[in-house]
Amino acid sequence: MFPKAEAKLVDRLGAAISRLRAILQYRKRHREKLSQELRETFEPGQLETTTNAYAQSCAANYPPSTPASSTTTFGPVAAPNIDTSNPANLVPAADISLYYGSMGSDAANSAYTGSTGSINMNLKLAHSTVVLEYIDTVKAVECTHDSVVVEFEDTTAFQMAAETWSLEESLIMITNHLGNCDAEFERGFFRVDSVTPDQHSQTITCNAYKEQISHIAETCQLHFSSVPAGTLTKRLTLDPSFSVPFSKSLAKDTVLASVPPYLTITANEANFSSEITFSGYLYYDFWAFKLRQLYFDIDAEFAADVGLTANFAAAYNKSFTYAPSDLTYALINIPGIVQLGPGIAFGLDVDISASTAVDIAAGLSVAMPDGNVHVDLLDSLNTAATGWTPSYTPYANISAQADIRADANTSVTVEMALNFLGGLIDLSGGLTARPGVTNTFMLDVNLATESPYKNMTTAELARKSEANKNSCGDGVGWKTDFVFSLDAFATKLWSTTLVELGVPLWDHCYQF
């Protein structure tokens, strides 16, 4: 006969082997089902890309392959609505909520210390669970590689815990820095297969071993709120709502493009500013190996002032995109659980041409104070936008008669990248807003109507335009439109245009 300790070890080893076999059989049985669901979810052209993306992400570990300007570590924080003196918290329960937020002790490494952003994780576990931090009568916790010892300071609480915990064949215990059980910024998840109460010391010794969330959870729901986008500068100033205001300005008279001897394009001014805040939700079903829901809500304020000068020495055309910075992320990390990478980038698109030597000055001031986009990464049909009401003031001037096209569009891209459980889920999505203005100057134009927007030019130009409304004479025809588009996307999965509009501003003669 085996000694008692050896027999117990053999039993545990046999149980572990049986559990491993069950997991492998379950995964094999559901592999074809999961493959079919993917084919039903995505278009044929998307499936290969999506499958490769998941394969790469599942092989990855922290950090994800997104550039980061700073990292904020979220750690365990007190639950806002839990009464730790309530004896009901001693009774194991299957559904639990855990809260994470920025850590005041992480001031040296966190750009967001003191902010109010938060992440709430709701878990439905395979076994009843006790969260020790929700019990104020727990005096101390001590952990070894195969045990968790919980000491109580109250006899009634000890007796209730001993009675209710002993009723469970298997128990999950969650620790939070009451002893030596957890890594920094992490909670400990332990599977308990037996408990031994000691009335004299008021301790309960749990025969336990650490487990990963993916091995003990049936479902996981993450709610994240007031998560800010990144900044294009290294200095961050946070307001109490945990939204990050940020701005980017080009140096005055920055040369954007030069094609000697034909063309030089200069930004006399280019200022971008915005405030972006993310919230969202993730729901993962471990038993079905399926991401049930993943969406982001993006609240945005955006403003830009752009003024360009183009000096043509001869007929020429040029199109280009000027991006002051790549998408910059400010990672938010809950070690071992999730990384969120909200980011931001600004850009400037220019399409300009002239039929002869001429100097052109054009610009746009635009502001959108109330934009919101709901981005459903799993279903583009559930993605929608509200707000995004722009106010704008464009201008344009030319030095000589010519056929000219001068289009300028500013752009802001905001994106949330998410890495869940070390690559189990690795997806991103967001939006790109592109406000802009098109200017067309045309020689030999006969105008059929007078613009209703003549009051947006000088009074002298309006009078000249009225006197020559059927012909430009020695002038050129001038047509200007405000254009705006708003696109939402889930990287490598889909993209869709939510808003696309063009507003005629004026169409009349430009006289010299």
UniProtKB/TrEMBL annotation:
Domain DUF7223: 305-442
Pfam families assigned: DUF7029, DUF7223
InterPro entries on file: DUF7029, DUF7223
Ranges for domain DUF7029: 124-220
Superkingdom assignment: Eukaryota
Name used for this protein in its record: Isoamyl alcohol oxidase
Species annotation: Aspergillus leporis
